[in-house]
Amino acid sequence: MSENEEAIILTEDQSEERPYEFVLHENAREQEVLGAIVRTATGSNLSAKESLVAAVNRETGELLGFVGVKRRSFHLSEIRHLHVDKPNRNQGIATNLVKKALEMVKTPVVFATVSYQNIPSYKTFMVNGFTEWTQFPSSSSGKIMCLVGRHVVRLQ
Ligand SMILES: CC(C)(COP(=O)(O)OP(=O)(O)OC[C@H]1O[C@@H](n2cnc3c(N)ncnc32)[C@H](O)[C@@H]1OP(=O)(O)O)[C@@H](O)C(=O)NCCC(=O)NCCS
Fold it and tell me: Could you tell me the CA-to-CA distances from 58 to 9, 19, 22 in Å, in that order?
């Protein structure tokens, strides 16, 4: 992914020496290439004013994974479109993407929807402090879905 005016490289704890860095794209839908990448990977579209946190290989610039943050109301945000490319999975990238996404959340409450059968996804949210709020059957697939959420504490 090339850098542009919309992209902001997020600062990190210097002790965290990872081969990738996080790049924030505000209003990601306005970038056609990014929208197409998300659509191909997840099958759904970015929505208006959705921000995307991308994990990008520091050396090659390759996009390894991403997660969207969508503000739903003054008190509620949604984390969505979580995706890590297959060759890069099970290395903690999703866990760190959600951690970074939480830093972007400006509301006191955040939620996500995961399939109960999707163990890596479910675990990613659990290790980031989310708890299961309720379960419901997907209207399209019939799979059991979990609504997971957590509070985001801001002391300022
Ligand atoms: C879900 C997904 C984003 C996870 O990405 P990832 O970078 O591999 O996740 P992480 O490496 O951070 O691992 C997260 C947790 O899942 C566990 N995990 C990863 N792959 C696993 C697997 N195949 N089986 C069981 N557990 C697995 C990890 O051990 C970790 O748990 P831990 O912290 O308790 O050890 C990735 O699998 C993906 O893109 N899947 C397709 C899209 C998708 O399902 N998105 C979620 C929509 S809500």
Answer: 11, 6, 9
Atom number in ligand 1 closest to CA 90: 11
Q: How many CB atoms lie within 10 A of CB 47?
A: 13
Q: Closest Cα to residue 64, out of 83, 49, 80? A: 83
pLDDT-based confidence at residue 136 (cuts at 50, 70, 90): very high
Residue 154 Cα distances to 104, 109, 115, 150, angstroms: 12, 11, 29, 13
Per residue in 107-121, pLDDT (tens digit) is 999 999 999 899 999
Name every protein residue with a CB atom under 6 angstroms from any ligand 1 atom.
82-84, 89-95, 114, 118-121, 123-124, 127
For ligand 1, the distance from its centroid to the CA atom of residue 155, given in whole angstroms, is: 31
Residue identifier of the C-alpha nearest atom 3 of ligand 1:
83
Domain 7-151 listed as CATH 3.90.1150.10: no
Delimit the domains of the chain by residue range. Answer: 7-151
CA of 138 to the centre of ligand 1 (A): 21
